[in-house]
Amino acid sequence: MTRVAILGARGHRALAQVWRRVRELPDGTTLVLPPDGDVAAVAALAARQRGLPVETDPLRMALVDRVEAFPWDGDPALAETVAIARAAGLDVRMHPARSLSEGALLVFSARVSYSGPGRLQITRRGDGCDPMGLPFAPSEPLLDRALAARGQADKLREAAAELRGRQLDLGETRADVEARERRAAALAEEAEATEVELWAWYAPRFRAEMRVSYGLARGTPAWARQTPEARALADEAWERGTRPRPEAWRRLLAAPFRVICCFCAGERCHRATLRAWILPTLGAVDGGELGPTSRQDSSGSARLARTPAGHTR
To answer: Is a pLDDT exceeding 70 seen at residue 302?
Structure first.
């Protein structure tokens, strides 16, 4: 098992470079990280995606096989640490950013149960609703319709599960059991069709709301230049109460990394649309979805996960 220390300069902004490097490490690698800092936080998130164990005990930093260092703007503290590591005979690999312009937003997504660094909740309502995240949440009318359709789909799935879990009655024939299974399958298919239909309706309307939120204002030349279909969707978004919030988008895109969170399960979700489609068109790097922690982190990694870096809830 190889033990690799990940070290970064204070203020390092090319966090996508750190994320990609950890994603490339071989299976069986253990990461040894400083207890705080954006580089350590992103390395820990990438390790979580890979299922790699993480240690954050500073006393273990000397017990590594290799050091991967990410310098930024001539940070003297990192240079001193690298010099000490080399003097101790450690294998040190440097990963300088090609330019300072590489500091694009690195964006992950997760369910609201995520409580680690970089958290930004983008829900319209519910526990932990964050005013900083409201410009990236669906409008109340859009949300209400989505929740109603999902509630209908959930009821259909519950009915299907009840049919499949029902105990065999003494008077039932094989034909009765097969008919019940067919009915359960039909209900499950109807539930899926309901959600597919909802998403086909919802997704373009949410994207239109985000165009308005980003800065598209009614009555401007940019509004008039839209295609008739896009303008109709933007008109709907405006009528639902969406308004331009360009300062919120500038603040988000200027951040080193964020983990955008909502309640939804699955990829038919506004956080996935923001992470994988909308924000990358604005220069952000898609870091993917963070699932549940796949294995128990060792040493101090739980403390790292609880140490906010930048904006939190």
So the answer is: no
